[in-house]
Structure formats: structure tokens, C-alpha cells
Amino acid sequence: MAGSLSCLQVKKYPGVKYNYESANTKGLFVVGELMHSRDFGTAAGGFIHGFRHLTVALFQLLEMDHHGQKWPQAQKFAPKSADLRNESAPALDIITNSLVHRFGRAPGPYHMFQVLQDVVVFLKNGEAVLLHSVPRAAVVKVIDSGFGNNATRYLTVTWAYGERFSGRGTDVFFDSRLALNASEAHRSNFRHPVIETYLGDEESWSQCTRHHVLDDANLGWSDRRVHVGPLQRHLDLFFGMNTIEDCLDWMKQQPKFVQLGKAEKQDIQFNDLLFDSTDEERKIGEVVTKVWLS
């Protein structure tokens, strides 16, 4: 098939969409080192330990878009006994333990930080489903395709560095670079898991909360006092929120938050707004949520 690739960002990398399809030639996809176009200067998509995970994600996206396949479910969680409102409730303790186990065994999101995410989708019947290594720019589409209106809320697990971890002119040895307790986890400067939660309705998804898991030099994140316990309590907090107003009230109590606008539920670029994105991507859809930026 004849086609061409235009360079929209860095000269040596082609402009590609969220699914690594050429921005100017329909049906032409890039695989391998060229996939670095979407994460240049951010993650490891230009190297084998990065684009091997992007290639798997591309395969799953093509299966979904062209063959009607759903994103593979890595784990399914049955609901616990009904809560006091006689409704099915998710087994948050089991989900927490599963996430912690995954923290040290997730090569895709770890190497492709801020690009690939693990996603837990919560359903109306109290069940929950874990999806591995979903491109952050495709999370909403993957959820809509696989679960439709049966999904009521979801969370993502992304790996991120602190703002001052590196960069030209940055003092990477600043005195407060090491966070020592869970209450300071948002100050963790090395790569660590960040959990973001979302509430949904028939029209849109809105971000609700953000939780940083304290940095761990051993890459285990399994200490029940500073890792597991705070995460469990945060998930309990999230499930006590039932409206966007609840989320906004929580955000206003945090150090910083910013209003970004509105994102339709069908907008596959929604998650791109949670991190740095191109001006072109920011024009796609309107954004309505308030995102806390620590």
C-alpha cells in the first residue's frame, strides 16, 4: 500500500494518532522504534524494552477496532456480600492486594510510564475487571467498547517520576527529594505508581481523585503501613463518593487543582489531558473535569 508519513512533532519521528496510525495516511500503522513519536522525551518507546509493550498494545487495538474483540481481561473480581444498602459492592481489599502484587510485576506500565496504564473497571453488579497495559489515550474507548454503560467507575495505575527528577538545569539532588512517609507520597521523586479514579454517567467520565504510592527503592511497594494501608483507605474513600460534587469537594482540600473543561465519554483523547499533550490533541473534544495536579 502506498502512503506517506508526515512529521508533526520531532523531525525524525512521524505524526501518529493514539493507535499509531499515520496522521495523514489512513490504514498505515507504525511499529517498533517509530512508535516513540508519541512518547519522545517521556518514556522508553524508542527502545526494545519499551516498544515491545507498545507493539502488544497496538495488536490489541487492531483486534478491537477491526475484529470486534474486547481488550483481554487479566483478572476478574467477584463482588463481596451486599453492603448495607443491599447493593453489590466490590471486594476492595482483594483488589488492593492484586494491585500491590502487580506493582512490582508490570513491565509495560513501568517502562512505558505515563503511556501505558493498568485499568480496573467497576461494573454495576459489583464485579470489577483488571486490564493490563492499556494506552492512556485509548482507555475511554477500551472501556466503552468492552463494557458500555455497565461500567460505573474506573481507576488507572500509571507510573510517574517527580517533577524534578531530571531535566536541563534541574538540581536533582535537592534536599527534599526523598519522601519518607505516606502523607508525603506525592513528593516521591523516583518512579512510583499513581492511582487516578473516575466517576462516569451516560455522557462523560470525570476524574475524581489521585493517590500517589510512596516511592520504594526495592520496587516492591508491599509495606502494609506505608503502601498497602494508604491505598486501601483511598479506595474506600473513592467508593464513598457518588457524585462529581463529592469529588470536587475532595479536590478543593488538596494542595493544587486545575480546571480543564469537558471531555465526552467517547473522546479517546481524554486521558491525554492528564499529562502533557500536544496542542493538536488538546483541540480534540472539550474537557469537563477538575484534575488535581500535585
Structural class: alpha+beta
Radius of gyration equals 19 Å
* Oligomer status: single chain
Count of distinct strands? 8
Helix content: 25-40%
- pLDDT < 50 runs, ≥5 residues: 257-294
Distance between the termini: 46 Å
Helices and strands, in N-to-C order?
HEHHEEHEEEHHEHE
Strand content: 15-25%
- Structurally, the number of domains stands at 2
Could you give a short account of the major beta sheet? 6 strands, antiparallel
- Helices, by number, come to 7
Could you report the average pLDDT, rounded to the nearest whole number?
79
3D architecture notes:
- With 294 residues, this protein is α+β, with helices and mostly antiparallel strands.
- The chain has helices spanning 48-67, 92-103, 107-111, 139-147, 224-239, 244-252, 279-282, and strands at 75-77, 116-123, 128-135, 151-160, 192-200, 205-212, 258-261, 289-291.
- It folds into two domains: 1-69, no CATH class; 72-291, no CATH class.
- Helices cover 26% and strands 18% of the residues.
- The strands form two sheets. A six-stranded antiparallel beta sheet has the order 1-3-2-4-5-6, sandwiched between helices. The protein has a two-stranded antiparallel sheet with strand order 7-8.
- Helix 2 crosses helix 5 (224-239).
- The radius of gyration is 19 Å and the shape is globular.
- Residues 257-294 have low confidence and may be disordered.
